[in-house]
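Journal club side-thread
Mid-discussion, someone asked how the predicted structure for our own chain would compare to the paper's figures. Pasting it here so we can look after the session.
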Amino acid sequence: MAGVTNSVFRRICKARGADVLTTEFVSAEGIMHRNERTEHYVDFQPEERPLGVQLFGAEPEQLARGARAVMDWKQPDFIDINFGCPVNKVVCKNGGSALLRDGELLAAIASAVVRAVAPVPVTAKIRIGWDAQSVNATENAKRLEEAGVKRLTVHGRTRAQGYSGEADWDVIAAVAEAVHIPVVGNGDINAAEVAVRRWTQAPVSGLMVGRAAMNSPWIFQEMKAAFRGEDAPPAPTLSDRWDLIEDHCRQELARWRKTEKGMHAMRSRLMAYSRGMPASRELRRRFGAVESLDELAAIRAWHENAGHAIEEPDEQEATPADAALG
């Protein structure tokens, strides 16, 4: 979710029912610089709590220093260590899911961070393994529990899968049964009914939603209603979706000094929001060139007045944002 889960998007999700939030991941080395770019990754507002700062790296003491530094700098509620990222530029530096192949180093990193920030809790996220021949999530979960990690999120794919294929919830369930700390399940939770099914299938303590929130942050309130046995809340109307799109853009532009740069940064977010909307293919084409809020308003006027007549929603077609993030 790099490039997605900044403070603006997290607050959008929080307002729609998300319980616990985590920042975009940032390298432990980057934390030490305390520059404007790093602050963009780790900055948050009080209403986002409880919130954790997510770190990655490959060297125990460096991660420990970074964790201690961010605690002194931003005082998050917990530190989260990313042992799951499959992206090449992270893996090639022995970070993210590369550490799934080295259980001793993985545990050493977790232990160092736990000691550095105590008594603040440390959490971690892993994948089920490096590839189909090395599914070792249960073993790594035990190592992390022993190292002092207080909560573990398990994404049900291997690093080799990226975001293709289906998440393996049988492995997630096995992990939850093997350790005493809370285990959060992650992978393919894209609707309330799916969330309820996964909750009943695996003895997890929570569910993590990532990519599904990119085009529908309402999923959190839909899930909560389903868990309470209540009727589903009214589905967002086209006008609701457009109100959110414009509000998201306005909030993002307030964070940028140049409107053009801010709108360019929002284009991939707009692509994600378009998924499932009428005339989505043409909508994405127009979003790909949008330069200002005025242009966005013009696209909305076109879409609400005539866009529905151009084509039907293409919910199965991947957006550029989906391709980038899996």
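Post-session note: Residues 238-325 form a domain with the Four Helix Bundle (Hemerythrin (Met), subunit A) fold (CATH 1.20.120).
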